[in-house]
Amino acid sequence: MTFKARGLYASSSKEPRRSRVGLWLLLGLVLVAAVGAVTAVAVLGRVGLDRGSQVETFDAPTEVVIENGTDGAVEVTGGSGPEMVLERQMHGSPLKEPVDEVEEDEGRVDVEAHCEGVPFIGQCAVDYTVAVPEGTAVSVETRSGPITVSNVDGELELSTTSGSVDVDGNAGDVEVESTAGAVELAGVEGSADVETTSGSVTAAGAGASLDVSTVSGSLDLSEFEADAVEAESTSGSVSVGGGFTTAEVSTTSGNIEVATEDAFDLLSLDSVSGNSSVEVPDGTYRVTGESVSGSRSVDVDTSPDAEAHIDANTVSGTLTVD
Predict the structure, then answer these.
(1) pLDDT-derived band at 248, boundaries 50, 70, 90
(2) pLDDT in tens, 83-141
(3) Is 9 exposed, middle or buried (0-12, 13-18, 19+ CB in 10 A)?
(4) Which residue ranges make up each domain of the chain?
(5) What's the rounded Cα separation, in Å, for the pair 88 and 226?
(6) Which residues pair with 159 in a beta bridge?
(7) What is the pLDDT of residues 286-322, one digit of tens each?
(8) Measured between alpha carbons, how far is 269 from 312 in angstroms, rounded to an integer?
(9) Is this prediction's pTM over 0.85?
(10) Nearest-CA neighbor of 288 among 267, 274, 273?
(11) Residue 49 bridge partners (DSSP)
(12) How far is CA 162 from CA 143, 146, 289, in A?
């Protein structure tokens, strides 16, 4: 009885061992197949395919709206005639295809692009080059592609997630919204309103108002003249030039620099730990505000009855007024 019991035990203990070997072999094959499939998908995703280009014309639109949901860029220029010329270059991959739709209705042209296919894998982009009649109102939205606008001379509304925005020469108000892309405005004749999270902003031009805010990007507004200026940054530095009647500048840890040769009514500065440096023309100023622990150096004539008012408040940052 004991012999048979050992035999039965020995026989039954061998079966699970063979089963375990087969199971590990099966798992290994599945893993190899999975790795191969992932590798194949990744390789296919990196393969770029040119899907061709198309050109369309539209007669004298007054408004153009472009929503580019691909990774492509948008370039808009002011044309020499009454027609709008829309050119697109389409790029795809074996796993993803760009889709482009255009609608025209009562002087408005809507352009929309998106991608269809495997999410998050594969190249997909539609690059737009657009020439619009002078004075056309233009609205552009991109995901990661850059936006470039030159000599449109119309109202601009530009938005991007991580793409850069570059406006060169525009007679008309400009509104820009960006998450991480840098913004550069040059030769703008009109009001400018810019909001970004971490992208830097450089602005040059002239208009009724300039309103710029960022969290960590620097603001160089020294070449933009506006009657009313508002500039706000959390950790980025802020530089403001002259030509304003009122200017309100605030930072948390970034430095503030204001240099003007023009008379003004109000200059308001608010900083927590950043330093503030102000250069103003000769004259008499009403200087108010408080500094908790930062030093204050005011080297201008002061009077509580002066028309020009400088209100500067800091916590630990220094203040210099020359």
Answers:
(1) very high
(2) 999 999 999 988 889 999 999 999 999 999 999 998 877 789 999 999 999 999 999 99
(3) exposed
(4) 1-46, 47-143, 173-322
(5) 37
(6) 141, 177
(7) 999 999 998 999 999 999 999 999 999 999 989 999 9
(8) 5
(9) no
(10) 267
(11) 92
(12) 7, 8, 38
The per-residue pLDDT for 6 is 40
Buried b (16+ CB within 10 A) or exposed e, 76-92: bbbbeeeebebebbbbb
d(CA 81, CA 42) in angstroms, rounded, equals 46
In sequence order, what are the residues at sequence separation of 6 or more whose Cβ sits closer than 8 angstroms to the Cβ of residue 300? 280, 282, 283, 284, 285, 287, 321, 322
Residue 34 clears pLDDT 60, i.e. is over it: no
Q: How far apart are the first and last CA of the chain?
A: 109
Residues contacting residue 164 through CB under 8 Å, at least 6 positions apart: 146, 147, 181, 182, 183, 184, 199
Who has greater pLDDT, 315 or 19?
315
DSSP per-residue letters across 152-204: --S-EEEEESSS-EEEEEEES-EEEEESS--EEEEEEES-EEEEESS--EEEE
